[in-house]
C-alpha cells in the first residue's frame, strides 16, 4: 500500500490569514475532505446543537465581548492550540460511528480531542 498525501490549499498571505477546518462531507476517500476557511466563524461542539448545527458557527461578531454575549450560558469558548485525530474520528470517516451519524450527521469536522486556552466560560458551564 502506498501512502496517500492530502493536498490542502496554499496558506493565505499573513494579512489574509484565518483559521481553517477540515470538513468531512461523508464517508469515503480524500475526495470527501474539504478545507473550510473559518473567517470570523469557529467550529462548534457537537453537544450544543441548539446554538447552531455543527460543524461551524454563524459569523461571529468581531469584538470578544460581543462574541461572548452571542454564546449560550452553558458553553465554553476555547482558543484551540492543538487537536488530534483519534479512533472515533477515523471511524466517523469510515462511516462506522453510529451515534455520530445519528445525532450529528454530515458534514463533520474531526478533532474531538483538543487543548488550548479557555477564553470564556458561561455562567452555567
UniProtKB/TrEMBL annotation:
It holds the Pfam family ADH_N. It comes from the Eukaryota. It comes from Alexandrium catenella (Red tide dinoflagellate). Gene3D superfamilies: Medium-chain alcohol dehydrogenases, catalytic domain. Residues 73-124 form the Alcohol dehydrogenase-like N-terminal domain. This is Alcohol dehydrogenase-like N-terminal domain-containing protein.
Amino acid at each position: 500500500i502506498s501512502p496517500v498525501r492530502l493536498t490542502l490549499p496554499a496558506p493565505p498571505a499573513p494579512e489574509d490569514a484565518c483559521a481553517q477546518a477540515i470538513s468531512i462531507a461523508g464517508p469515503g476517500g480524500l475526495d470527501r475532505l474539504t478545507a473550510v476557511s473559518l473567517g470570523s466563524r469557529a467550529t462548534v461542539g457537537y453537544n450544543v446543537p441548539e446554538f447552531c448545527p455543527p460543524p461551524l458557527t454563524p459569523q461571529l461578531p468581531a469584538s470578544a465581548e460581543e462574541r461572548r454575549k452571542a454564546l449560550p450560558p452553558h458553553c465554553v469558548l476555547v482558543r484551540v492550540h492543538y487537536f488530534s485525530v483519534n479512533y472515533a474520528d477515523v471511524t466517523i470517516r469510515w462511516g462506522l460511528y453510529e451515534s455520530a451519524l445519528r445525532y450529528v450527521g454530515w458534514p463533520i469536522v474531526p478533532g474531538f480531542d483538543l487543548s488550548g486556552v479557555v477564553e470564556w466560560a458561561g455562567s452555567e458551564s
